[in-house]
Structures are given as C-alpha cells and as structure tokens.
Design brief:
Layout (H helix, E strand, L loop, with lengths): L5 E6 L3 H10 L5 E7 L3 E3 L4 H5 L8 E3 H4 L6 E4 L2 E5 L4 E4 L4 E3 L2 E4 L3 E3 L7 H4 L6 H18 L5 E5 L3 H20 L8 E6 L10 H13 L2 E5 L3 E4 L3 E4 L2 E4 L2 E4 L3 E3 L1 H5 L17 E3 L2 E3 L12 H19 L14 E4 L5 E5 L2 E5 H16 L4 H10 L8 H6 L1
Parallel strand pairs: 1-2, 1-9, 2-5, 9-20, 11-12, 11-17, 12-13
Antiparallel strand pairs: 3-4, 6-7, 7-8, 10-18, 14-15, 15-16, 19-20, 21-22, 22-23
Helix pairs in contact: 1-9, 10-11
The protein binds flavin-adenine dinucleotide.
Amino acid sequence: MANKKVKVLILGGGFGGLKTALGLAGQPELDVTLLSDQADFRYYPTLYHAATGGKMTASSIPLAEILKDKNITIEKGTAKKLDRQAKTVKTAAGRELPYDKLVLSLGVVTNYFGIKGLKEYSFGIKSQAESQRLRDHIHKLLIDDGKPDLNYVVIGGGPTGVELAGALPAYIRHVMKMHNLRPKRLNIELVEAAPRLMPRMSKDYSRAVARRLRKLGIKLYLHQAVQAETADSLMVNGKPLKSHTVIWTAGVTNHPFFEDNKFAFGEHGKVQVDKYLQAEDDIFVIGDNAGTEYSGMAQTALHDGQTVAENLIRQAHGKKMKKYRTKKPIYVTPAGPGWAAMQWGPVHLYGWLGWVGRSAGDFAGFHDYEPWRLAGRHWIAEYQNENTCPVCAAQA
Ligand SMILES: Cc1cc2nc3c(=O)[nH]c(=O)nc-3n(C[C@H](O)[C@H](O)[C@H](O)COP(=O)(O)OP(=O)(O)OC[C@H]3O[C@@H](n4cnc5c(N)ncnc54)[C@H](O)[C@@H]3O)c2cc1C
C-alpha cells in the first residue's frame, strides 16, 4: 500500500504563506492546501503608489496565477477555529480543513489604539480597497466642491507613512492639473509619536529621510501624540490640525486568530516560536505573526516561509529539521519620485542610487513568486499610472 501523504495546511496567502506553498510545490509526499481569505496576493510595498495614482495590478496578483500548475490546492475562506485534538481548522463558513502540519502566516491587522474618531474618519493604505478609497476621496473633493483639500495629514513616521507622504505632493499637484485647477500651496503634515522619523533605523537614516521630506515641503510634527479625530480636524498635542484627509499608518497588532485560539505571546504581542519556528509540535508560525528578530518585514516572511518549507520536506524524507537562522533585511524607503534611503549592512545610500536599489529589490520581490516574464510585467506596472476618476480619464 502506498504511504499516506502528509497533509500540510497553510493559513494566509501573503508573503510567508505563499513562499511556503511555492517551496513545497511538486513534493510527491505532501498534500498541500493554501487557505486565504482573498483570491489575490498583496504586494504591500507598492500600495503607497497605488494610493497615489499607480496601477493597482502592481500590488495585486491572483494566487491562481502564481500557483498555476503547482499542485497546490487553493481554498478561499477565513480561518477561525483551531482544533488541536482533531487537527483541523474551521473556517467562518463552517468548512473543516484537516492537517498533519499547520503553517500560520496571517499577517497583522490595523490598530487604532482606541484613539477616538480614527477608525471612523481616517484613511489607510493596507489593502487595494483602502488605497482606492483614499484615491477616490482625493478626486471626489475636487469633483463635488471644485476645490481640493489643501491640508493632508499622514500619521506615522515609519516606512509606510514616509513612502506615502513623499508621494503625495507630486500626485496632488498632478490631480489639480488634471482637474484644470491653478496650482495652490499644499499643506502636507506628518505626525510621529517618537522623537525622530523611522525610529527603528539609524539616526543617519532618520536624518536623511527627514531632510528629504522637508525638501518636498512636508511639515514634520515629531514627538507629538495624536489624541482624537473629527470629520474635519485631528487633535495633536492639544492643538487641532485642520484636514478632511487624515491617513493612519501608525499602528498594527497581531492577528486576532492567535488570541482567539490561545497561543502564547512574547514581546510586542508576537507569537512565541522555538528554534524551528514552531509554536507547538506541528504548528509553525511565521512572518509578521512570529516573535523573531526581524519580524514585520516582507523579506523576513519570505525567509521564514523558505525555512519552514525546507524543514517540512526534510521531515517528509525522515530527516531532522534545521535550526532557523535570522536574516538581516535590506531596508529601503522611497520618499518622492527618484529618491530612496537604503541601508544594506554597513552600506547607506540616499537619493537616486537608493531608488535604483529599491527598484531592483521590487523586481527581485516579484520574481520570488513568479517566473521572470510575469515578474517583469508586474514590475513594469509599478511605474505605470491609471485613472479611475472620470474627469482625469477624460483628460488623458
Ligand atoms: C503599506 C505597507 C508597505 C510595506 N512595505 C514593505 C517594504 O517595502 N518592505 C518590506 O520588507 N516590508 C514591507 N511591509 C511589510 C510586509 O508587507 C509584511 O511584513 C509582510 O506582508 C508579512 O508577510 P505575512 O505573510 O506575515 O503576512 P501578509 O503578507 O499580510 O499575509 C497574510 C495573508 O493572510 C490572509 N488572511 C488574513 N486573515 C486570514 C484569515 N483569518 N483566514 C485566511 N486568510 C487570512 C491575508 O489576506 C493575507 O493574504 C509593508 C507593509 C505595508 C502594510
């Protein structure tokens, strides 16, 4: 009788989950299922561009396209309940998926830290839908009132806030031109609670990014706490900043699945994992969910997915698993057209060269999931724009 295949169930079709699935593809001993609550893989690093007129297809790739001919079953559904005894995961729709080995890579969710009004009034860029909503809002103010919102506030001086704030001035000027409006002075503000931008990076890096944003005309409010938001203003350190467009990029928290299913947490609310990235026997937790040194970066999720896939293959061949070794990411933060800060070990690059580094990194990022031809197509899309506003479309 043929040996029974090992059932591997992967939860989450993002950076970590998808990389695990690709690493396991074509293994005859394994029966692999990828469960994701959406049909597409989100390439987050280009979402700031999608929010400022870039092509949505650069940040959204169908899972079916990436996993075509890969012998992986794709299930669409939302994971809800883990039954450790029965070794199953139940979805919101009531489906029960069995596993021998479970890999969790569910990503993080937005956290407003209970700040009044933020959830109701702020915008975000954590998905295509959120990016599209922000883009539509910027145009809608022009179509409805014939005048743009001249005040924009980005909350969060981490990579997402910096990328978005850097891209906003050129985009809003472009939109004003498309709507036949005379150029007006924009007031773009960035609020950060820490004393400097990019607090996880070196002081040099922070300084270079701050200089660049100021050069683009962005006002920085550092060491300032956001207290509340209303429909037309944001309270920061007891003073109102007038704006109808506040974008929240400052907070995320671990996925609720882990608390709901009684996992053990370590620092920063991340799930505790052992030297093989296991939270428990046969349950691997990777990417943003796991308490590893460089958690919170796509490159880490990729590395984790690769490691777990290799170990599952080793186990299927009766070999011992290899210990997880952390991998220091390359940090690249674009801020406005043709400029990025880059830190690769001791090498720091600011400006055009950093931008080239980022561009090369994105190409490599797409190729992590796709053959060169398709990766090239998505990479080119990153430099293309699209008009979803009827006024702009008529002008183009
Ligand atoms: C705007 C933005 C820009 C970023 N830019 C960079 C960058 O330039 N460089 C970098 O290294 N990192 C960047 N990151 C961080 C990077 O995207 C994350 O570290 C990475 O996505 C983590 O991978 P993951 O697999 O842990 O989670 P994700 O990639 O978020 O994948 C989680 C997947 O699980 C699915 N899912 C969620 N809940 C369920 C459920 N209950 N059931 C089934 N499926 C579910 C989600 O839909 C998603 O497909 C950025 C993040 C954001 C938000």
